[in-house]
Each structure stands twice: as structure tokens, then as C-alpha cells.
Specification:
- The chain is mainly alpha-helical and 265 residues long.
- It is built from twelve helices and no strands.
- Helix 9 packs antiparallel against helix 10, helix 9 runs parallel beside helix 11 and helix 10 packs antiparallel against helix 11.
């Protein structure tokens, strides 16, 4: 009798444990059906549900073409769901697993996009902060990804847009050097200011940031009493920016609408 009672209790406990687990509504689904459902969730912006479907494809059909595409879409979903670190991890894993995949150009493009506009950039219209005033590490990573895309896949559908973004990134990184130069100038460290401003002129030839770099050079040479070099800079300014007036000290009120990252979206 005691043995029967124990068996009954085990059966009840077993049934109770099974009943607490919700059945998987996608059990038995094919890779094609899972992927179609994932795409519907992506189109609706249901990132968590889309990620679940894509992960199911990878775990159930790991050697299928669908698993490769699921990894691509997972990177996109992570980016759209404000998970840039996870997006980068997914992209790196894809590149390691499938180095010669036809979708490599897109993954390089996405890699550039992930670092192109950090979340704080979208507050720039409120705070007035120039993206070049932040740590340029992410901007340089974005530049490297876009540049690799341009060099390896010149005929890719993503390359024309990547070229535009590279031009923006080059000037934004140059402006970071300008901010550092201005920091030194405002603290009377004129030699340091000259070194950083000169780097903009030599390393980022022709970018809009060179205008302010020349201003800093002119004023720093003037403060140091190096009039010959100051006058050389003035001639360069007049040759490159003939419509400007150079009578005043460096101005902090220039129009910097060129850097607004919101214009890209």
C-alpha cells in the first residue's frame, strides 16, 4: 500500500512539473516557416520575437542556408533593438564562420552603421553636442568597416552610401583633433595646439575642419610672436577661404550643421 501511495505521489509530481511548462508553438516547424515568421516579426518591429525565431533556426537547422541568413538577420535585429555590442559580436561570429559568404558586403556595411551614430548622437539636437567632441574610437571603427567595404566590394549596392559616410567620418574625426587643439589653445598651451591643428591640415587634407584648424594655427602663432608663420597661415586662409574675414580671433560660433547624424536616417 505504501509503495502504491509513493508511486501515485511521483505521478502527481511529474504531471505537475510537465503542466508548468508552456508548449513551444513552433515545435515541428520547418526552417522555411520559422524564417518567414521571423521576417514578419522584423517587419513589425517585434525585435525580441524575431530574435527568438532566428535563434530557433540556428539551433534546429545549424547547417542550413537558413541558419546563415538567420545570423545576418540577428545582427540587424540586435542593431535595431539598441544592442550594438551584441550586433558586433554577431557580425564577428558571422565573419569567422563564413568569410567568403555573398552577404559579407552587407555585414561590413552593417558593422559601419552600428558605430556610425551612438545612441547619444540622437540627443545632439537637444544638447547641441558635436559628435566629434566624443571619444572617436567608435567613429574610427565605423570608418574602418566602411573603408573595407569600399576596397573589397567596389561594385556593392552598399558602397555608394558607404563612400558618403566615410567622407562625413573623416571630417568628424578631423574635428576631434580640432577640439583637442582648441582645448590646448584655450589653456595657453600654444605649441601643443599647433601640433594638433597641423595634424588636421596634413592628415585630413581638404576637409571642412581644416578651416577652424587654420584659425587655431593663426592665433597660436600670433600668441607666440611667430609672425612669419602667422602670415603664412593667413595667406593659406585667404587662398582657400576667399570669402571669409580673418580679422577677428578664432570664433566658436561657426555653423556646424554638416555633422548632424540625424540627416542620415
Amino acid at each position: 500500500m505504501a509503495m502504491l501511495l509513493a508511486l501515485a505521489m511521483l505521478l502527481v509530481a511529474g504531471c505537475g512539473g510537465t503542466g508548468n511548462k508552456e508548449p513551444d508553438p513552433t515545435a515541428g516547424w520547418s526552417a522555411d516557416r520559422l524564417y518567414r515568421d521571423a521576417k514578419e516579426e522584423i517587419a513589425a518591429g517585434n525585435w525580441a520575437q524575431a530574435r527568438t525565431r532566428l535563434q530557433s533556426i540556428e539551433s534546429r537547422y545549424p547547417f542550413s542556408v537558413y541558419a546563415q541568413q538567420a545570423l545576418i538577420d540577428t545582427a540587424y535585429v540586435n542593431w535595431k533593438d539598441n544592442e550594438p555590442e551584441q550586433a558586433m559580436v554577431t557580425i564577428d561570429r558571422f565573419q569567422q564562420l563564413y568569410p567568403n559568404h555573398p552577404g559579407t558586403d552587407y555585414m561590413l556595411y552593417l558593422k559601419g552603421l552600428v558605430n556610425f551614430t551612438p545612441n547619444s548622437a540622437f540627443l545632439s539636437s537637444v544638447t547641441g553636442q558635436d559628435p566629434s567632441e566624443r571619444d572617436p574610437k567608435g567613429l574610427r571603427q565605423s570608418y574602418e568597416a566602411f573603408n573595407e567595404l569600399i576596397e573589397r566590394f567596389p561594385n556593392s549596392r552598399y558602397t555608394p552610401d558607404a563612400k558618403l559616410r566615410v567622407a562625413w567620418l573623416v571630417n568628424t574625426i578631423a574635428m576631434n583633433e580640432v577640439h583637442v587643439a582648441r582645448y590646448y589653445y584655450e589653456r595657453d598651451a600654444y605649441v601643443a595646439a599647433i601640433n594638433r591643428a597641423q595634424a588636421v591640415i596634413t592628415d585630413f587634407e581638404g576637409v571642412p575642419a581644416s578651416e577652424e584648424a587654420l584659425d587655431i594655427l593663426y592665433n597660436a602663432y600670433d600668441k607666440l610672436g611667430m609672425t612669419d608663420l602667422r602670415d603664412d597661415i593667413l595667406r593659406v586662409q585667404q587662398a582657400n577661404f576667399p570669402n571669409r574675414s580673418f580679422a577677428n580671433e578664432q570664433s566658436g560660433g561657426k555653423d556646424r550643421s554638416w555633422w548632424n547624424p540625424l540627416n542620415w536616417f
